[in-house]
Structures are given as structure tokens and as C-alpha cells.
Amino acid sequence: MRFTLVSIIIISMLSGCGQRQTHDHDHDHDHDHSHHSHDYSTPGIIHYEEEAHLSNIKQLTFGGDNAEAYFSFNNEMIVFQSNNPHWSLECDQIFYTRLDEANMGEEIPQMVSTGLGRTTCSFFMPGDTSILFASTHMGDGSCPHVPPMREDGKYTWPIYDDYNIFVSDLNGTIIDTLTNEVGYDAEATVSPNGDKIVFTSMRTGDLELFTMDIDGSNVTQITHDLGYDGGAFFSPDGSKIVFRASRPQTEEAQTEYKELLAEGLVMPTNMEIFICDVDGSNLQQVTDLGKANWAPYFHPSGEKILFSSNHHSERGWQFNIFMINIDGTGLKQVTFDDTFDSFPMFSFDGKKLIFSSNRNNGGTRDTNIFLADWVE
Fold this sequence. Notes:
The structure is a single chain. By secondary structure, the chain is mainly β. The chain has a single domain, classed as CATH 2.120.10.30. Helix content is 6%, strand content 35%. It contains two helices and 26 strands. A four-stranded antiparallel β-sheet has the order 1-26-25-24, with no helix packed on it. Strands 2-3-4-5 form a four-stranded antiparallel β-sheet, with no helix packed on it. A hairpin with a 6-residue loop joins strand 12 and strand 13 (208-213). The protein is globular, with a radius of gyration of 19 Å.
């Protein structure tokens, strides 16, 4: 499958909980971490006419790369990651804000990560007084190196060994370390029931999904097939998990996957959506669309899934949010920006949808967070 440079950049920056790699803001990079050239976005549009499931769309952030915004259990706050250069950030850090007080165009919200290393995939813990996230700050504290394009032209993500999973209070004090294994532990989210966490780990030699109890105990592997399993979320009743996965099929593809993984790398350009029971049983592939299908999240009914995909884009760089039944039928496009929409999450009451988009970015390469009422 051929991808344009633009599609590769988009996927690399915003890949769905766990792999949102960015370049540093220093030197003369012209913000190379960004997602597209200045010619692709349609200026000034927040809500497209075709977006019938969305109303009262509001833009919450205004600059840099802002993504993976997720609601608190009481639906009153959001937590997200940003590398906004106006907030003096060199790489992604975790922030939270109350929605009724959000004024992020004028004020910097509360940072809850350490400010060191790179962070990813935050989520509120039960009670909404602490936040779960992954960070590399226990390494050397600098922004991890982003490897250059390979000589063979194939695009890869780095899997940083320094990632571990932490819990901080709302003032940014680390109050718990949930993983301290050698190798990648990240992409953690919490069950609506408040009892379990799902995350991605390299601890068994492949990028597999694991669950643990809310205190970090009772770690259990739930996926076992060769390939990158990540970006997982629980169903509304906590009984199922949805995730994105690569599944190399040919001997050549499997060999390549293993060789790259040995170098701490994976290729993200071919992913599909899967679901399984919380213990890993009843594994089912939901999409079979080709290209990159990722950032899945359950619809409030538990019978549908929203996800981001470029399967419909001839040039590969356009990502929109789609909805599909859990049996793989009823595919429907939800968003219609001409460059990038992803990271959908419903509020726990099912009334609102939050997502990230390159819409209305003033002709820049910024990705911002948008909040909308959900119209069924």
C-alpha cells in the first residue's frame, strides 16, 4: 500500500493513544511535527453541513497539536495532551480543564504530568480526583529522539522503552506508579465500571493488550496474536474492549514486523478495528477496509463503534470519523473535514462527543480539540 508523505505525517503525529510522536519545536523545523501542508485545510469551517450527528460544535484549543481528549466520569472535565509551543512545550505533556471554565485560547490549563520526557494517553481515574497517563520521564527527562525516515522509505513508529504508566493528582503530583517493567507500557484507559485498566505492553515480546486492576495488581494478558494491539477502550458496560491492531499475514510481513520490533519500531500504515470480551475471549475483527483504521471508541449503545480512517481517501491523507456496527455492517461517515478528524470520545451520559481536528486552524498545521452535542 502506498501512502503519501502527508498521510504518513498525520498517522505518526496522531495515532490513537500511545503513538503520537512529534518532532521538537526547536531549531528550524517549521513545526515538522505537524500534519499537512498549508494547502489542504478549508479555512474558517467548524461544522460541515454533512455532519448531521453533530451540533453546537465548539473549539476548545487554539494552537499546536492537541489530541486524545477524554471526559471525566462526571462529564465536567477533560484531560488531553498537547505540545502547544505557546505553552513552552517541547513535546507532549498532559493537561486538564473544567469545561465550564475552559479558556485555553487565553489561559494555560493545569498541567498534570511532570514536564519531563514525553507523555501519552491520559484518562481520569474513578472519582475524578486523579489522572492516569504514560510518560518517559523516568528516563533521561528529555524529549525522546524521533528516528529519521528509513533508507528503504518505509515509515515506522518508535516504541520507547522508557514509557511507564503513572497516576497524578490534579495538581500534577505523581501519587502512584502502576508499571515499572523493562520495555514499553502505555496506552492505558479505564473501565466505566472503575475496576479495571487496559493497556499495551511489550513485556512478553510483542505489543499485546493487558488488563490490570485499578491499583495495578492482577496483570493479565488478553491478546496473543502477532501484531501491534493498542488504543484500547472499554464498552459502556465494561464487558468488551475495542482496539486497533496490525496483523501481518504473509511470512515476509511477519518477518519484517519482528525485525522492526527488535529495533524498537513498528509500521502503522495498515490497521483494522477489533473487539473482544474483557478477558480476551470472543475476538472479532470489525473492519476490513484497508489502510489505517484506528482511534476506536464505543457508541453509548455498545452496539456501534466510532473510529478514524483514511480508507476512503485516494491520496491517503484525509482522515475522517466513521461509525460502524460491532458486526461490521452499517458503515457511515460522521465527520467531513478535508484533512483530519480523529480521537472521538462520548461523554459518559452519551450527550456529547469530543474529537480532534485540523479544521479551522487558520491555514496552519495545528490540530485542535472540538466539543459537540451528539445528535442520534
